[in-house]
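Structure in, sequence out. Go:
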């Protein structure tokens, strides 16, 4: 005999569980920059819960910059949540100006900005071309988004089209990636906050309110020119004071050389400690062509800052003098001296530094290349080529930013500032 009472209770429990599950997706995140951030769509919550996304909690936004600015401990997770919040604000602002944006397009552009950094590896840009040889994190992000999309039965189709700039409304991609996108607006404000470098403070709210769309292209209303100029100046200052800080550059070089040395020793048959995921990449080289391989993506997604630091701490006691010294320098923050100049360093000067080091540490001249390095730094705040900022004039015309600027000379910002450096052990 059918028991309607039991059936009713079962149905009620199922409805209740589904209701609670739905409610649980309406999370609020308390962010130190913007306050409370709401998740407005279930699919957003589902993507945040993915292991591939949660990994971003374990990857520092600014790599080794905390060796310079101790407060720079924030993560890629915090950044992309903040960028998503700014995107939602931008969508609301554009709709208020009668720019039609459907709910599907809103979800798509929110997912595109949320997942745009999912391909970052340990220490973010510090090891971007090292774990996978000369592979940009955008390429890995795209691969991961396609894989997640297959697991979600195509729910990320629109987000991928927007991210890869294949959607017929280009302003949506420009909100994700351009010279004035939500990614840059968040990282300038966030990195300024956590490093304490006040020059990076930008009037984000006003810039977003000044955004507009004409002929499906993102533009800035004329009255927003000064805010954009300040944004460009802040970006230039932040690059020299934070992103290209000489101590961070020196630390990055030591980290890269430590992994390079570890790879060489493993290739020679030496047994070095490393997690299975890190060892996978140390024993062979992978390129962009290998992104389609499941084992490459699996091991990459299992990597984070912790794997690298654990290995460095163990390698400090390695019997290989070069690897041991490199790791001790980084872990104990006994970093090399770095000099910066406007012209490349003379080869004779570089060789002199190598000769001193070879004598002091009983190294061959070839081995001193791990401790004496040269390179160049490039800082370009603005480019008028291809993706120039367009200003919507009050008379309805469009002008390129450099044609309208009144107080800020963009000529210098359109040319990359190049500086040269040499690092050597004190």
């Amino acid at each position: 005999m059918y028991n309607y009472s039991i059936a009713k209770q079962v149905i009620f429990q199922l409805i209740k569980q589904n209701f609670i599950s739905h409610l649980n997706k309406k999370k609020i995140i308390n962010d130190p920059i913007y306050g409370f951030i709401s998740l407005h769509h279930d699919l957003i919550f589902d993507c945040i819960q993915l292991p591939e996304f949660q990994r971003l909690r374990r990857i520092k936004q600014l790599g080794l910059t905390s060796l310079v600015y101790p407060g720079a401990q924030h993560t890629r997770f915090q950044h992309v949540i903040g960028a998503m919040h700014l995107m939602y604000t931008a969508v609301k602002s554009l709709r208020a100006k009668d720019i039609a944006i459907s709910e599907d397009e809103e979800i798509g552009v929110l997912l595109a900005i949320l997942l745009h950094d999912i391909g970052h590896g340990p220490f973010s840009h510090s090891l971007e071309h090292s774990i996978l040889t000369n592979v940009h994190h955008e390429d890995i992000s795209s691969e991961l988004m396609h894989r997640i999309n297959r697991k979600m039965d195509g729910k990320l189709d629109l987000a991928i089209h927007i991210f890869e700039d294949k959607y017929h409304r280009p302003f949506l991609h420009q909100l994700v990636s351009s010279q004035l996108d939500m990614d840059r607006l968040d990282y300038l404000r966030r990195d300024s906050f956590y490093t304490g470098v006040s020059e990076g403070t930008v009037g984000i709210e006003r810039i977003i309110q000044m955004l507009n769309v004409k002929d499906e292209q993102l533009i800035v209303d004329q009255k927003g020119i000064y805010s954009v100029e300040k944004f460009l100046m802040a970006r230039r200052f932040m690059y020299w004071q934070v992103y290209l800080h000489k101590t961070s550059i020196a630390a990055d070089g030591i980290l890269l050389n430590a992994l390079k040395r570890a790879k060489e020793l493993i290739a020679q048959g030496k047994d070095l400690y490393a997690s299975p995921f890190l060892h996978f990449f140390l024993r062979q080289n992978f390129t962009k062509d290998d992104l389609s391989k499941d084992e490459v993506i699996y091991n990459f997604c299992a990597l984070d800052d912790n794997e690298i630091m654990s290995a460095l701490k163990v390698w400090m006691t390695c019997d290989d003098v070069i690897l041991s010294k490199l790791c001790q320098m980084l872990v104990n923050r006994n970093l090399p001296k770095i000099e910066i100049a406007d012209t490349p360093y003379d080869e004779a000067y570089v060789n002199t530094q190598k000769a001193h080091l070879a004598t002091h540490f009983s190294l061959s001249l070839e081995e001193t290349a791990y401790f004496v390095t040269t390179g160049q730094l490039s800082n370009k705040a603005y480019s008028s080529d291809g993706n120039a900022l367009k200003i919507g004039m009050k008379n309805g015309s469009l002008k390129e930013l450099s044609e309208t600027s009144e107080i800020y000379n963009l000529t210098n910002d359109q040319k990359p500032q190049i500086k040269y450096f040499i690092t050597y052990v004190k």
